[in-house]
Amino acid sequence: MTDLITTPDKGLDAHLVVDRGTFRLDVELTAAPGDVVALLGPNGAGKTTALRALAGLARLTDGHLRLDGAELDRTPPESRPVGVVFQDYLLFPHLTALDNVGFGPRCQGATKAESRAIAAEWLERMGLAEHAGVKPRRLSGGQAQRVAVARALATRPRLLLLDEPLAALDARTRLDVRAQLRRHLAEFEAVAVLVTHDPLDAMVLADRLVVIEQGKIVQEGTPADIARHPRTDYIAQLVGLNLYKGSADGHTVTLDTGPVITTTEDLTGEVFVAFPPSAVTLFRDRPTGASARNLWHCEVAGLETHGDQIRVDLTGELPLAADLTTVAAAELDLHQGALVWAAVKATQTHSYPT
Amino acid sequence: MTKLDTSDAAAETLKGGPRRRRVRMTGHGVPLPLLVPALVGLAFLLLPLLALLVRAPWRSLPSQLTSTEVWQALQLSLLSATLATAVCLVLGVPLAWLLARTEFPGRRLVRALVTLPLVLPPVVGGVALLLALGRNGVVGQWLDSWFGITLPFTTTGVVVAEAFVAMPFLVISVEGTLRAADPRYEEAAQTLGASRFTAFRRVTLPLIAPGIAAGSVLAWARALGEFGATITFAGNFPGRTQTMPLAVYLALQNDPEAAIALSLVLLAVSIAVLAGLRDRWMTTS
Amino acid sequence: MTRSARRTRRTLQVAGAGAAALLALSACSSSDDSSSSKSDISASASPKMSGTVIVFAAASLKESFTTLGKEFETAHPGTKVTFNFAGSDTLAASITSGAPADVFAAASPKTMAIVTDKGDGVGTPVTFVRNQLEIATLPGNPDKVTSLKDLTRSSLKVVLCDKTVPCGAAAQKALTASKLKLTPVSYEEDVKSALNKVVLKEADAAVVYKTDVHAAGSKVEGVEFPESADAINDYPIVLLKNAPNAVAAKAFIALVQSAEGQKVLSAAGFLKP
Predict the structure, then answer these.
(1) Does residue B51 lie in a domain region?
(2) What does the domain layout of chain A look like in residue ranges?
(3) What are the structural domains, with CATH classification, of chain C?
(4) Quick check: B201 contacting A, CB < 8 Å?
(5) For residue A100, what pLDDT is reported?
């Protein structure tokens, strides 16, 4: 579908460097028209800075920004073909939904009547036709979000930026709006970049994830890729995996911290080893004659409900997270400070080169 | 804290401090320490006005009011105050924007200087204006020799003097509103294709309109009542520079009844205008 | 320590004082001590007197009365003379509204009558000097003003006192007598304001008193005009009925009328009564 090598002048080609003294952002982003890229990362990682740099609201200290072949890094935001959906929407309070959406086309030169027609079309597409004459303070969260998206799209941008598009919504509305947004992004023909800290939003809405930590890209790939092969603690926690780094020698991986894990893969050199909390079995007494080669003596550091399961946070020989049913946890009489044995089957581990 | 605890606590408050709770609960019981000074303050402001009405020469009022001087002065006052307010708007709103939205060295000093006309005795202000814009003034002499424009003794001079004393009211009011307004709306407008000025015009201005309205009303009222700077800078000539306050003052010396009549006219007109703008003035959003 | 009158001709301050007096003092005047005033001509031989004497005087008397005030304080240690100089009409209005004062010296019988008609004066006012009008022009008289008629030139910016002020009334009298129509650029509320407009070079000429031209020194140039002889103002002085310090007040009035007082006033340019 997209071939970056044969059509180099279409889509986004950016190297964003923003130096703020104490913080430095240095990321490279490329995307083809039609791509939806999610920038994922913890707070303070620099995702919003990257977004503002793409929009022109923050100046680049270095690097470049090319959109469809045109150099944009010196262009002011009003001249960039970039649309932004802000985290709290920033719908103009004194204008109706219709005039909000029509604002962009008016700035582009359309007459009042023309811009209103364009706006009406977009609101229709969003299913908000009957709210056209309503002021933003009367709109619900979900409606306001859709108006914000329509407003950004009405200018026909070549790059759509979304800053935490679902963060301001409650859980129920989020489901519906996420589904709708997914459809709109799928239809969108140019590049879309969204910033989020919610992995589910990222995985549902984006084709590609770019994980940023402390101003640098630490991993990028498809959601599936990243979920299966996390490269940092943050990502591992995000996708809910236990992650370790070590040195592999055949089926044995010696972790940097000491313990040894047996895996099914046959590798050499620096590797990551990951397994989900659900793959961990806990015993009160050391099991004998078990098939699990991976066995460690641990102490319970904390207990938390996780959905309808209990997540046990273990320290000791190997720090782990284990998921148990409430019944199992009760039977084992787990409490803070309890000593247990944790076992993982080699077949349930997954190791891959760094 | 369990549910039982909190309801017990509530019950105790009801029992223990009934008087205090009652006042807070009913809502229309104003606490005495606030009510008494408030009423005194109100009386303080209203008493002179009432005295004016009570002692007004109602019988001779019609004949007093038919003099041309009265209507000349009134017309001039209304015209000059409105023009002065317009000047304040054109110059003051951008100045307020500069103070609220930009950073530059010495900004605090500039803000203090902007409020100077507030503390300056009006006559001193008038003298200062003469020294600046008078025939021999620092800038005035160039106005005179290059453009043949003289400001003292003209109606334009009245507008200038009134604008000088009224401007701080507008600037302070608008600056306050601008600070409270979210600058991110302007960013949003920019991403939609609006230049900084278009964003100001179509997004910021409507948002700060209430602040501008309030500032304008204050400025207009101040300009209308100005005396010292006007008489010093523009002089006193019926129909050209004799505003209502000047007319009242001069009349007071030898014809107090005429002075009262003039004051009543000014009062009536002011109340009509201010009451008409009441809604805009009171609401802040 | 002498404290010269700090009251400037700021009209607002005077108006404010008048208004404050209105509010502060009751409308009904208190009964006075009706000791008849014997005008004591000699300024020497003074009985023990002390306290403050408050003198409301026409603006044109500023320089000369200030000098006399100092002489009075030197002659009577323990006394202090405080002045309020403003347009006579303004002062008269303040007095009738109840402003506390001992002596009133006006620039015209008309403005004095405002006070005496209300019964606020003691006895009959006495004329102590006369003042004659003079034209004040810019230093060097660049516009070559030589007569009252010259002031009617349309190119000149002329300032007059308002008709309600004695100086203005006199000017109108002179103009009417010579059948001249003069449209000034401004009618000022006291003679010092009018003079100041010329001093500040805002106006080209003003019709003020000889004494004002004298007092302004090199800042203005004076041009006498014959028509002024027809509009000489008599300056009356009177002790006020509610004078807080009648004894010292009488002594001050005596000083003004004495040979010494007259010497100071003549030196300033006033005409003998």
Answers:
(1) no
(2) 12-236, 240-353
(3) 11-21+46-130+235-268 (3.40.190.10), 133-231 (3.40.190.10)
(4) no
(5) 95
Given a cut of 50, whether residue B16 has pLDDT beyond it is no
The partner residue sitting opposite A108, judged by closest CB among B191, B193, B202, is B193
Neighbouring residues of C86: CB distance < 8 A, sequence distance ≥ 6 = C7, C9, C11, C14, C56, C58, C59, C190
Kindly tell me whether chain B and chain A come into contact, counting contact as 3+ Cβ pairs under 8 Å: yes
Chains in contact with A, where contact means 3 or more Cβ–Cβ distances below 8 Å, are: B
B50 part of a folded domain: no
Q: What is the pLDDT of residues A211-241, one digit of tens each?
A: 999 999 999 998 878 877 888 888 888 878 8
ipTM score of complex: 0.77
Instruction: Compute the nearest-CA separation of A163 from chain B (Å).
Output: 12
pTM above 0.80, yes or no: no
* C189/B231 touch (CB, cutoff 8 Å), yes or no: yes
CA distance A75 to chain B (A): 12
Contacts of residue B152 in chain C, CB cutoff 8 Å? 185, 202
Q: Which CATH number applies to A12-236?
A: 3.40.50.300
Is there a single domain that holds both residue B10 and residue B125? no
Contact C185 B227 (CB under 8 A): no
Q: Phi/psi at A52 (nearest 5 deg)?
A: -65, -35
- The CATH code belonging to domain A240-353 is 2.40.50.100
Report pLDDT digits (tens) over B253-283: 777 777 888 888 888 888 887 777 666 555 5
Residue A3 pLDDT level (bands cut at 50, 70, 90): very low
Side by side, the strands of the sheet bearing C103-105 are C79-86, C51-58, C103-105, C233-240, C121-131
